[in-house]
Amino acid sequence: MPDNLTKLLSDAVEAPHRLPCAAAMAAHEKGVLFEYAGASEPSGIDCNSIFWLASMSKAVTATAALQLVERGVLTLDTPAGDWVPELAAPVILEGFGDNGPILRPARQAITLRDLLAHTSGHGYAFGSDALGRYVKQAGLPPRSSGTRASYNLPLLFEPGSDWHYGIGVDWAGAVIEAASGQPLDTYLEEHVLAPLGMADTGFTLDTAQAARRAPMSRRDEDGRLEPMTMLAPTTRPEFVSGGGGLYGTPRDFLCFLRMLAGGGVFEGRRILAPESVQTMQQNQIGNYRGGWITSAQPRITRDFDLLPGMAQKWGLGFAINPERSAEGRSAASVGWAGLANSYYWIDRARASCGLFMTQILPFADPEALALFRRFETTINTRLDGCADS
Question: Domain-by-domain residue ranges, the chain?
Fold first, then answer.
């Protein structure tokens, strides 16, 4: 398996305009099964290179929230407005009139569960034409500004009445700050990242870390990859994005995945109680469908369905596949992704996990998705073969 997988991955980064770089790792309860990293640039990368994790951050922030639930500081049904003033009187965007956006007060309170499960009514401008129009008409700064005001978006629906992928986990980070009395980055460092040995994961990069960043590219309409520059975040933003602001290495993030695959423990260090891990991986959205994005800004993301043809659910931090996937992922497993085309899974039945990471925009890149799915299929087939032998 390793030789075949290595060739599969190296062929992809060496061929013109397929992938600028790729890192792939997999593990089970006995340790790391496979790792690879490569780039089309001569300098190359390895599994200690720095990648923008983007929405892979969401599960890390959800882990912090569950820690505070364990301690009795929060409950999942805590009204978020009790902790964060901006969430105390949410408004719903009903449309647009001659005088601008039409807003009405929400009838339901937003809970911490809503924020983590994407049932709060929050969205992203890249996934909603209405929110994109609102941002322009309201003159909001872009989220890349790192300002708190850039997250002050109206809701798309009543809290708890639907599922829509959005900035709810960013606001969950603000709840964590208020409830813990610590900035989110400080809390995560002390209670999640440092205990897991994730020394290269954070919201800002020092000079040495910035020099280890994997190259970022954009794929144009003709399928060609062009280098793009994303400035390294060297100073802390006003509003730390718990939903998408983390940078880190594949090796670091695999430690996090192994902790969740291991029921909350990694190398003898308990991060979460088993009951909390189970709650994170249980359906939190009832009959609604999760795990999809409809693009409103094609330069940022294509339409995306993590597991096409399956009515996926959502837990607290990631999508849930209720059935066995085409890649052989066991039923009731979880996984998700990051905007720069990084993807991961945690297979509960096999106590295994894996990740595939590259750095391309727009999201849902066909080459990256195809390679991720072939990688996961190969890993799951190998694990099944070991179990049968």
Answer: 2-388
Tokens of 169: 């986990």
Q: Is the whole-model pTM more than 0.85? A: yes
Domain 2-388 has CATH 3.30.420.240: no
Q: How confident is the model at residue 387 (pLDDT cuts 50, 70, 90)?
A: low
The amino acid present at 117, given as its one-letter code, is A
Residue 108's nearest CA partner among 164, 165, 160, 168 is 160
218/363 Cα distance (integer angstroms): 10
At 232 the pLDDT is 75
Q: Give tens-digit pLDDT for 23-58.
A: 999 999 999 999 999 998 776 799 999 999 999 999
| pLDDT tens digits along 84-94 | 999 999 999 99
Using the 8-state DSSP alphabet, how is residue 130 labeled? H
Residues classed as catalytic? 55, 58, 165
Cβ atoms of residues 358 and 38 within 8 Å = no
User: Got the DSSP string for 53-112?
Assistant: -GGGHHHHHHHHHHHHHHTTS--TT-BGGGT-GGGSS-EEEEEEETTEEEEEE-SSPPBH
pLDDT tens column, 125-175: 999 999 999 999 999 999 989 999 999 999 999 999 999 999 999 999 999
Backbone angles phi, psi at 270, to 5 degrees: -90, 125
β-bridge pairing 360-361 and 217-219: parallel
Q: Which residues contact 227 (CB under 8 A, 6 or more apart)?
A: 20, 215, 216, 217
Percent of the chain with pLDDT over 70: 98
